[in-house]
């Protein structure tokens, strides 16, 4: 590039200025507020920035989180895999308040977005004004603004993308290892803000460039593109692999969202309804909504769109980017077509169906399946629109009489684009949402109390409480019972729910929670009432926060439970039980529907029923000591669809109860051959409860038997049930009906064992309670009294 450095420096100032204008009034509250609204990720990300700063200063582990998920801590691989999410903010935090460090880092990255696109379009057009115009379009692109509202500052760190495209273009020349290395470098830098940009931007950009070379049979160029992408991908594994391994080992459930967070067909022509020019456009409100104004914003704009069409019509070199825009736009629509936020439904021969789109095929492919929000492909659309707009503007000003006229048209076009692109407005003026620096003196003072082991924030299951609580940690510096590195806490929900539901001093003390903070703006009134009743007077109270010290423990808690009040099973229904020692409980309920119903204990399916109409459901459950999650779920798989007419039918659930059985002395497990283990049993008047663990697949045609023998050894009652080796997982629990009510007075022995068909050979037993012989186990002797 032969452009004087002075021009580049002025361009940096220009882009910084338009970013400060776009983010107004941030410049006025730079040190006291964060970019993003109250529902954003600002508190979460700023907490991670604080931790990086603290860890580097004190020598604590940078990529491990000992102050989250007390007492175990959390793996912080995500921080390593997305370094530009926190850098250079953690460096600035050494010399300025955390909000200022956070905001300055964001403004720098947003300004670099425009400057990098300026460098690319300068190389393409060799003209200052089209280059500035292209950079302006990209810097202000509505998709970027939408994510800025949510404080997705890593996702909008996109300046590496234009530089990557620039290097791909320069790979046309004969082999130049320096350019290949730079292309690989910018490939890596492009995903260091957020690794998902690998899918949303790098994938469509690289694919389009490779296909264009393939169609034109430019084999050498194609090889250099693939080599650069391969090298960049290999180097990126240094950052991506730890995140991938963390996800593989994660217990978090995939939350889906491919349909909900896909772009509407009309989103590209739906401007922000906050903009005074477009406030009367009702369809924009339908398409974007209050929340989707973040994930669904994809507006191309009248001015930029016209320049793009002009470029495609008049400048052949721009058409490659038209294909990029088309590909990314189609992918952004997700797996099913939506128009005006409604799924498009077609009727053929009386059957209703949806319009299936290409992402439905690609979404489950390896690597691509990490992306759950297809609307983010609009980042790549923004790249293409900025380049085409620059080309279009170049063609336009070439027809003007002089440079003064070109500058005049440039000023008008930039103002028009900035006006229609601005997403957030208030009282007719640009107004980016900001979030106040959350703090409270009494909570900050906890920093000096060395007796505090950990803090418990409630309601624990509100995502914004998690984020607020994590930010408060930057003030009090104490460990948190919960907390997360990204999205949701991995701490056992049974533990958190029962601690919150009971606010039992014993359970709180056992968990190490010495301080409880209730977040009033996100809590229901009944939780605050409950907390005041259980914990007494708070030591701190304001409009946002209540805080208590944990009351003194007066005795042990042997059992506690929280039973779900959900009235259907369209999604898994969880209940929670704490038991100080192992024990049996019974789960009872009434269900109505048609499906296969499963009961899971701590993630393992232990029982199944076939529901057809109204069905009573009773199951014995053997629980280990500690916190346990009991989950009811069906075999129905449902997409998250906004169209209620095609929603899945649910299984209704009524009167769900969990009843603890009388505690009996634990018995030593009974080990059979074939990896079969009887963990516990309970002999009742009408049935026998059995809890099994299978260390390996069961043999085929295996039968479990329970036999009742009289005093002479005669068989008077039995239950012989074959087990399907493919259905039974690692655990199984059952109630075997064996009634002694119709037997005459006397003593009867209850035996248990396994045999295989057709030879009826018993499975050997290696250990047992009581008598074990010939492959069966004596469970108990039952006495039937005289009538």
How is this fold's topology laid out?
Blueprint lengths: L4 H18 L10 E3 L6 H17 L5 E2 L8 E2 L1 H5 L7 H4 L5 H28 L2 H12 L2 H8 L10 H11 L6 H14 L6 H19 L3 H30 L33 H14 L6 H13 L4 H14 L5 E2 L2 E2 L1 E4 L2 E4 L4 H4 L15 H20 L5 H19 L3 E2 L2 E2 L3 E3 L4 H4 L9 E5 L4 H14 L16 H10 L2 H7 L1 E7 L5 H11 L4 E2 L3 E5 L9 E4 L10 E7 L3 E19 L2 E20 L2 E9 L17 E9 L9 E2 L4 E8 L3 E8 L7 E8 L5 E9 L7 E7 L8 E11 L4 E2 L9 E2 L2 E9 L3
Parallel strand pairs: 11-12
Antiparallel strand pairs: 1-10, 2-3, 4-5, 6-7, 8-9, 12-14, 13-14, 15-16, 16-19, 17-18, 17-19, 17-20, 21-22, 22-23, 23-26, 24-25, 24-27, 27-28, 27-30, 29-30
State the share of residues found in helices, binned by percent.
Answer: 25-40%
Instruction: Give the tally of β-strands.
Output: 30
So how many helices? 22
- Unreliable stretches (pLDDT < 50, length at least 5) are none
Which structural class do the helices and strands define? alpha+beta
Strand content: 15-25%
Structural Rg: 32 Å
**Chain-averaged pLDDT:** 90
**Biggest sheet statistics:** 6 strands, antiparallel
Report the end-to-end length measured between terminal Cα atoms.
105 Å
What characteristic shape results from the CA principal axes? elongated
């Amino acid at each position: 590039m032969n452009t004087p450095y002075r021009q580049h420096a002025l361009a940096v100032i220009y882009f910084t200025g338009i970013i400060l204008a776009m983010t107004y009034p941030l410049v006025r509250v730079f040190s006291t507020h964060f970019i993003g609204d109250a529902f954003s990720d600002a508190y979460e990300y700023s907490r991670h920035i604080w931790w990086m700063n603290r860890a580097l200063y004190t020598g604590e582990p940078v990529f491990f989180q000992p102050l989250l998920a007390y007492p175990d801590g959390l793996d912080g691989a995500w921080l390593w895999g997305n370094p530009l999410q926190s850098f250079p903010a953690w460096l600035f935090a050494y010399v300025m308040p955390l909000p200022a460090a956070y905001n300055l880092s964001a403004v720098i990255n947003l300004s670099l977005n425009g400057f990098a696109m300026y460098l690319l379009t300068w190389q393409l057009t060799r003209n200052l004004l089209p280059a500035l115009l292209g950079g302006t379009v990209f810097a202000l692109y509505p998709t970027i603004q939408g994510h800025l509202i949510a404080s997705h500052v890593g996702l909008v760190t996109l300046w590496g993308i234009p530089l990557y495209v620039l290097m791909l273009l320069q790979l046309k020349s004969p082999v130049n290892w320096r350019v290949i290395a730079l292309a690989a470098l910018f490939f890596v830098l492009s995903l260091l803000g957020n690794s998902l940009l690998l899918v949303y931007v790098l994938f469509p950009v690289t694919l389009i460039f490779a296909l264009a070379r393939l169609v034109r049979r430019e084999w050498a160029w194609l090889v250099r593109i693939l080599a650069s992408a391969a090298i960049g991908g290999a180097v990126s594994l240094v950052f991506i692999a730890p995140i991938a391994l963390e996800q593989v080992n994660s217990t978090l459930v995939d939350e889906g969202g491919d349909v909900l967070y896909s772009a509407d067909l009309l989103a590209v022509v739906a401007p922000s309804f906050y903009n005074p020019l477009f406030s009367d456009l009702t369809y924009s409100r339908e398409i974007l909504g209050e929340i989707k104004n973040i994930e669904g914003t994809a507006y191309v704009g009248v001015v930029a769109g016209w320049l793009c069409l002009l470029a495609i019509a008049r400048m052949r070199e721009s058409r490659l980017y038209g294909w990029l825009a088309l590909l990314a736009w189609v992918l952004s629509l997700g797996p099913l077509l939506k128009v005006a936020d409604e799924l498009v439904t077609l009727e053929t021969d009386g059957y209703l169906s949806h319009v299936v789109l290409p992402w439905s095929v690609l979404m489950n492919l390896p690597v691509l399946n990490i992306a759950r929000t297809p609307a983010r492909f609009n980042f790549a659309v923004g790249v293409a629109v900025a380049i085409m707009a620059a080309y279009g503007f170049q063609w336009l000003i070439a027809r003007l009489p002089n440079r003064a006229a070109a500058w005049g048209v440039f000023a008008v076009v930039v103002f028009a684009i900035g006006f229609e692109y601005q997403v957030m407005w208030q009282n007719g003026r640009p107004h980016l949402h900001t979030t106040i620096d959350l703090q409270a003196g009494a909570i900050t003072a906890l920093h000096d109390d060395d007796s505090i082991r950990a803090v418990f924030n409630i309601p624990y299951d509100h995502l914004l409480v998690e984020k607020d609580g994590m930010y408060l940690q930057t003030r009090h510096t104490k460990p948190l019972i919960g907390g997360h590195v990204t999205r949701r806490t991995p701490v056992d929900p049974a533990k958190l729910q029962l601690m919150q539901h009971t606010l039992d001093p014993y359970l709180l003390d056992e968990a190490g929670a010495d301080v409880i903070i209730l977040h009033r703006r996100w809590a229901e009134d009944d939780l605050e009432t409950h907390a005041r009743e259980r914990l007494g007077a708070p030591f701190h109270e304001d409009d946002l926060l209540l805080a208590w010290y944990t009351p003194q423990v007066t005795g042990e808690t042997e059992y506690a439970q929280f039973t779900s009040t959900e009235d259907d099973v369209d999604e898994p229904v969880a209940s929670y039980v704490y038991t100080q020692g192992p024990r049996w409980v019974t789960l009872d309920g009434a269900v109505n529907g048609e499906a296969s119903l499963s009961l899971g204990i701590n993630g393992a399916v232990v029982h199944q029923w076939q529901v057809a109409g109204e069905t009573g459901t009773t199951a014995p459950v053997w629980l280990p000591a500690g916190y346990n999650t009991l989950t009811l779920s069906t075999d129905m798989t449902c997409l998250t669809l906004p169209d209620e007419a095609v929603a899945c039918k649910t299984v209704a659930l009524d009167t769900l109860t969990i009843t603890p059985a009388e505690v009996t002395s634990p018995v030593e497990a009974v080990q059979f051959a074939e990896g079969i283990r009887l963990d516990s049993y309970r002999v009742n008047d009408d049935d026998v409860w059995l809890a099994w663990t299978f260390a390996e697949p069961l043999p085929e045609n295996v039968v479990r038997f329970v036999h009742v023998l009289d005093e002479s050894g005669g068989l008077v009652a039995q239950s012989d049930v074959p087990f399907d080796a493919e259905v039974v997982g690692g655990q199984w629990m059952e109630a075997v009906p064996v009634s002694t009510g119709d037997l005459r007075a006397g003593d009867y022995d209850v035996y248990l064992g396994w045999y295989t068909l057709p030879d009826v050979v018993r499975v050997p037993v290696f250990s047992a309670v009581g008598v074990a012989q010939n492959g069966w186990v004596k469970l108990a002797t039952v006495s039937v009294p005289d009538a």
